[in-house]
Amino acid sequence: MKLRLVSFACVALALFCAPSRPVAGEDSIAYFDTLAQFKARNWLPAGVTHVYVRAVTGTYPPPAGADATPLWFKEASSATGVWGEVEVGGHIFDPVYSTNPVNIGEFGLVADGAWKQGGCNFTATSAGGGTLTVSSTAGCVAGMRLTSVNWATRAAASLPIVPPGTTISAVGSGKIAVSHRIPAMNAVPLAAWWDDITGTDNAPAIQAALDFGMRERYPNFKFPNGIFAVKSSLNAGWGKGFYTLNIKGGDRQSFAGLPGTVLLFTRFNQPFMNFQAVRTSSLSGVAIIGRNFNYLVYGQGQPSFSANRNDWVAPEFSPASAPGGLQPNAPFAGVTEDAYCGGPPSVGYPDLSFPAWTNITTQFGKYTSSDVKLEDVEIDGFGVAYANGLGCASNADFTKIVNFTGANNAYDIAIVQSQSRSVELRNLNLEHFYAALTNSDFGPSQGQFNGPMTNISAADGYEIFRFGDMAYAGPVVIDNIYGENIVRIGDFTGNAAFPNPVIFHGGMVNLNEFLHGQIPASYVTNNGPITFSGVTFTGNQRIGTWATGGGSVKFTDGGSWQCATTSPSTTAQLLAIDYSGGCLVGPEKFSIQDPVAATHYSAPGASLGSAPQQSVLASNATAFARVPMTQGLRQFMDQDNRSWSMTIPPGELIDPASPGQVPVAPTISEDVLTFGYCAAFQTMYPMAPGVIIQHNGTGTNFVVASVGSPLSSSRCWPATYVMVTATQQNNLNVVPGTNSFLSNNITAAALTGYSSRLGGPLITVPTRLFFGQFTAGDATVANVQDSNGSGAALTRFLAAGDSFLGPGNPFTNAGGAFSTYGVSSMPWPVQPIPISLSAVTNGSSGSIAMSAPARSTGTFPIFPFELRP
After folding, report:
1. Are 452 and 422 in contact (CB under 8 A)?
2. Which residues, listed in sequence order, are joined to residue 868 by a DSSP beta bridge?
3. Can you say whether the dihedral through the CA atoms of 455, 459, 463, 466 is positive or negative?
4. Rg (CA), the chain
5. What does the pLDDT look like over 669-722, one tens digit per residue?
6. Listed residue (686, 676, 683, 685) closest to 713, CA to CA
7. How many CB atoms lie within 10 A of CB 12?
8. How does pLDDT run across 548-581, given as a tens digit for each residue?
9. Is the separation of the CB atoms in 554 and 673 below 8 Å?
């Protein structure tokens, strides 16, 4: 055969070239375009001791988007068993592999991976056979899998579902034939999707490359460009002895079919790759695709976004008692770290086959890792994209995940063991998930982050954070978050006696239900402190609840929100929005430190933001003489820049189990709540259009729409009550793109425990402070003047009908004391029982008539609530 020289100028580029040319005469070298050509030879010319193959896999030249990986072979005196060894014409040739980096392509990767994207959605009716009547067949193709949308939720409710493993057999006009008998169902949402990854299994070749590097202590590895099928788990470290392994594809991960390294994984009962007992190691520049990708696009597409995490993994990949799905210690995972430390779990990954050179005989109890980095990696289509510490709480610390993309995973990043510490998350692009980040739900469920979380973008998901054990998480500080089409911010629960704080610094989060239709019970569940500093939120069309769980919530440093974004059609809704700003922080502990540019409408039907809402009212900062009371009003600054603290009585607690308060038990029909309310309570804590009733246990809000005429009931004393009708605001679903009620997430039976009465049309706050002379037992307030000694403008700021309420409990008539400049303590003159102003008269010294007499004598501020300097 003709022998010819080749150029070795590119030898330094290990991805494209073989190691340096061996020292050999030209007559001793044979050249082949492909490995297949080399293996097909049954003889070689005499004296040939070296072979150069231009493409160790595939064809030469390579197809577009793939690389040709060359490789040298050297004749061996006898068989060595090395990976890739070739026998031709009775001669043994061993590959001469690159070492810095180890070129994974030289081990025989075949870039013939392929996967189908696509699917369809429709509603289906079944009479109990193998043919469905469907609302649409657009996009449906024979061979696709078929699944019930929200299959796990339906199964838990004993509703019929499509049997796992069902596929489409044929598509007709308005009909679909399927492979399994479908239970009887009527107009049930279904999803069809491709589960079709094909190609040569490259797992043995990749593992051989990793083993070569580990055995010979070469730390760096390089993938060629191409799409590669991988049909079993890869082990970066075997768990006995420590390694540094830096595995790289391109400089950035592949995007949307553009050239790069794409790895298609076909298994669900084991991770794509597990790092075990490694130090300062990394994976970079690759895209990893799992089989759950298409399922999530169609099985949890708009408008599903289920609150049940099990709905986010296809039933075919979610065995009840075997690895896969969202099993705590053996989930359907992309990349894991230390999955085999600790003892054997009740449900664990399949046993590994260890290379003989490792001398390992046990499956678990492996050494743990430290300082693993994922950079420019994309992981899509798994139950959890990355999971740290599934097997035990030891090391797996200093994890760094930067420039990371995750899409169509139930969870993106799970840090779940207590020794992880100093985790760095930076530049994350996360899309379509049940929960983007978690420190619980897997493994020990005690994940410690305690590190920077910076520039996180999250879109199209149920909740961004699911931190179920804040006692271990460490302080959670998130800088610059962007959220789009999200149902909830998430959970920060499980705090100890000294809870770790959660602090958001800057960002924008859109929680609007326009696409997904869900208005959750609360945006956050927390039992420790959480602070939003300079974060802008867009909420739902109805009045939402910021937080449940008992923790404090603080808004500061110019943050803002726009909630209840649909213009109110009734005065009742308007009053409730004006009080809450469209989002109730709640009767629980909270603080709004700076003015918040919240939702406000000046009248029913007005446009959003038609008037400003002051969260902290400063009289010299507003052009309004009178403003409605808001949930954020806790401090008053008068016209002389004196700061006053306000004593605002707590809202009434309503107990539906108490017939002496609620003689007619609550009922809910669609989004309308009705109940009876005893007259004695109506006197002390009046229900009126615009009052908000918040169920403390769930954060569900109702706005009172109407109050009926008195009715008789022996359960009340006096023996009368009124029927109250209220409109539900949250913890429900609306038709996407509208504000029309669709379904409820709560029943009247679930309204156990207390609810709080909040807001209402009863309190209007003057923006100028006047002082007047009160006399115990007298309903007239004399000598009413402002700080300039004038009452001439009194009626501009106060009006007949204004309601005042003192501190204390109206049923015991107990009230707080009032201390002013150098004057001994005395009771605040207005009793806790609500009173109103009967008349307001201007004058150099104005006067006010009250509906009830004062209870103390002295000069006091004229204000609806007790003020303290």
Report:
1. no
2. 645
3. negative
4. 35
5. 999 999 999 999 998 888 999 999 999 999 999 999 999 999 999 999 999 999
6. 676
7. 9
8. 988 888 888 777 788 888 888 888 998 888 788 7
9. no
The answer to whether the peptide bond before residue 718 is cis (omega within 30 degrees of 0) is yes
CA neighbor of 224 nearest in space, from 22, 47, 15: 15
3-state secondary structure of 153: helix
- Dist CA 711 CA 639 (whole Å): 47
Distance CA 772, CA 847 (A): 8
Q: Which of 625, 595, 663, 648 is nearest to 764 (CA)?
A: 625
For residue 454, list its beta bridge partners: 426, 479
From residue 710, alpha-carbon distances to 85, 555, 719, 720, 721 in Å are: 95, 42, 10, 6, 5
Judge contact between 551 and 530, C-beta under 8 A. Answer: yes
Q: Where are the alpha helices (DSSP H) in 114-273?
A: 151-156, 203-216
H or E, element range at 796: helix 794-797
Containing H/E element for 244?
none
Question: Is 50 exceeded by the pLDDT of residue 617?
Answer: no
Residue 36: name the closest of 110, 90, 103 by CA. Answer: 110
Cα(116)–Cα(695) distance, integer angstroms: 48
Phi, psi of 598 (to 5 degrees): -95, 175
CB 151 within 8 A of CB 163: no
Residue type, 330: A
- Beta partners for residue 562, in sequence order: 538
Q: How many CB atoms lie within 10 A of CB 637?
A: 17
Q: Is the dihedral of CA 502, 508, 512, 515 positive or negative?
A: negative
**Which residue has tokens 């392509």?**
105
- How many residues would you count in the chain? 869
**3-state SS class at 246:** strand
User: What letters, b where the CB count within 10 A reaches 16 and e where it falls short, cover 731-746?
Assistant: bbbbeeeeeebeebbb
CA distance 773 to 767: 20
Could you give the 3-state DSSP secondary structure of residue 620?
Answer: helix
Between CA 98 and CA 222 the distance in angstroms is: 10
- Taking a C-beta distance cutoff of 8 angstroms, is the pair 837, 849 a contact? yes
CA 843 to CA 865: how far, in whole Å? 24
User: Going by C-beta distance under 8 Å and a sequence separation of 6 or more, which residues neighbour residue 384?
Assistant: 326, 331, 332, 333, 334, 409, 410, 411, 412, 414, 442
| Distance from the Cα of residue 349 to its chain's centroid | 27
pLDDT tens-digit map of 809-858: 555 555 566 554 434 467 888 887 778 999 999 999 999 999 999 988 98
Determine the average pLDDT of the residues in 49-77.
90
Average pLDDT over residues 400-410: 97
Q: How does DSSP assign 264-325, residue by residue? A: EE--SSS-SEEE-SBEEEEEESEEEE-THHHHHHHHS-TT---SSGGGGS-GGG--SSSSST
CA distance 176 to 129: 11
